[in-house]
Design a protein that fits this description.
Length: 728
Amino acid sequence: MLGFLKKPVVVTAEINLNLVALTVMGLVTRLWGLSYPRAVVFDEVYYGQFVSLYMKRIFFVDDSGPPLGHMLLALGGYLGGFDGNFLWNRIGAEYNMNVPVWSLRLLPALAGALCVPLAYQILIELQFSHCAAFGAALLILLENSLITQSRFMLLESILIFFILLAVLSYLKFYNLQRHSSFSGSWWFWLLLTGVACSCAVGVKYMGLFTYMLLLATAGMHFWHMIGDQSFSNVSLMCHFLARGLALIIIPLAMYLSFFYVHLTLLYRSGPHDQIMTSAFQASLEGGLARITQGQPLEVAYGSQITLRNVLGKPMQCWLHSHTNTYPIRYENGRGSSHQQQVTCYPFKDVNNWWIVKDPGMQQLVVSNPPRPVRHGHIVQLVHGITTRYLNTHDVAAPLSPHSQEVSCYIDYNISMPAQNLWRVEIVNRESDTDVWKTILSEVRFVHVNTSAVLKASGFLGASLPEWGYRQLEVVGEKLSKGYHQSMVWNVEEHRYGKSQEQKEREVELHSPTQMDISKNLSFMAKFTELQWKILTLKNEDTEHKYSSSALDWITMDTNIAYWLHPTSGAQIHLLGNVVTWTSANVAALVYLCLSLWYLLRRRRKIYDIPEDAWQLWVSAGGISMGGWAVNYLPFFLMEKTLFLYHYLPALTFQILLIPIVLQHLSEHLCRSLLPKSMFSALIVAWFSSVYFVYCTFSPVTYGEPSLSAGELRALRWKDTWNILIRKQ
């Protein structure tokens, strides 16, 4: 039974020393002096705020993308014991001892370091030589811009890591396809492809470009499989389902999981709540939840309510009225009804309270038992403080002359009767008998007489003049003009009115509610709302000193000053290795020209290279040139402030193309010994120049040593580069 102990247990392993050496060099170049400078560097001022909010579990919305990247940065802070207490208010601010700088910058640096061996393995999986693969890794290793971007609390290095991991995983899966389908390793690399793709998209939506490229590649490969008669119909269906599971279902599930963790961590109310719906805000601890906790769920006749506009742009606002009236004539000479003003007010106020009244009864209190208001019911809305009825009529609105004025009706005993009946339409109803619910129901108020819809028109940014206290305009908009979120309202605060007398009612309107009903949203409801906000929320794009156009990136006509020492000339810039960037452009041009030449010749039945070399050339170009194109060209269609670092994922793919082109030229154009020797010597000289430029710009890559004014001027190789030189 114990016979197996008579023989020693032997474990054998193959170690690729190239990979080990590249990994070590990558770690050294990215981790060396990682805590320097101990100050806020460029966009750390932006991402650091989110890390602090994670540490304090405070909810926020970032319109730049999904939450995975922010959570990974926050993980670094958590591992370092960061409590979130730091004021991220300016670039260059010194970190106090409470901030674990090394830990916060660790994960981006590790991701950047691992991109080096990943580049090596990708070239190997593309069936290129170890020499070409080693060259690709060295180019990534010595690329100054990638080093700079990976040494700080930024997301690009993490994004590039997941992109390269996805490409490598798919290539390994595809190469295993030929001889070991459905094996353990086959499943591992296929599943890892989907996981890496979802992580890339979860860090930044730019990851979607590479994900689409890999989906297209997988689709093309599967299309070829369909034409292969060696695969049975059952086998093809199994392959299709496996790819669908790994490349679509699992990435979608993981994407949802990122938001689940994000929303689980951020359960406290914060400064970003106001752009979310009342239901979302009420689901957070503190803030609106403290006000709305325990409110009655069903709106009834006699309910006292505040109505918040669902759109929340340009700011959140509530339906509001006050004793002031519209001026008899506006500045442009148009007349008004001179009725009581109705506006959308961006602050909580007692004048935001309205009473839901049954048109057939006079009482303004809730009966016992309460009579709930349902979809389609006719109501009157009575302003709580002034007791005047919400009204609209065929009078032009003050700022929107093609829409109707909305007012609270004053009886001037003239031929202008009250028109104050409104039909409640629940937009998100499940049936036509749904009850109007606090926070949860999104409703439209349709005017019975004119079919106009109550709308906050101030979403266009227009506010009333001084006579309207700069509040936002509310109008009656014809249904024929289409649906817009500014026409939708929800009840935010709610109580059952008990006082029939006006003075008692005013006291009641100032009092908090006491009833206890919970209104928690499901995860999917919160995810849908947050995802929509991320996709549609647009911060005002302002011109930045270091913003640039996509055309500037190819030739690196721009740079970004990341940090400047307050007293010395030490500084950090996002600047690439000029030799590498130029070589990448030349390689892309050579690849396109050679591909066109080969295609034309093949069309004439002239085959300059063997078929296997042609297939290798096409597949390698599809990954590298395709990766460059999908990560670069979309920026020409984007209306946003662009920076040089947006080009780094595309640049990474373009760098991989350099050794691909060099090996191809060496094998197929330099066919005798002398040209091969000369070509090899040129490559050595070229690599030496890459290393020379890396060393030359290292002081502004790492921020040390400090350079003199003359040395800094010598680094300004282009007039468009903004190298900072202090005046003596």
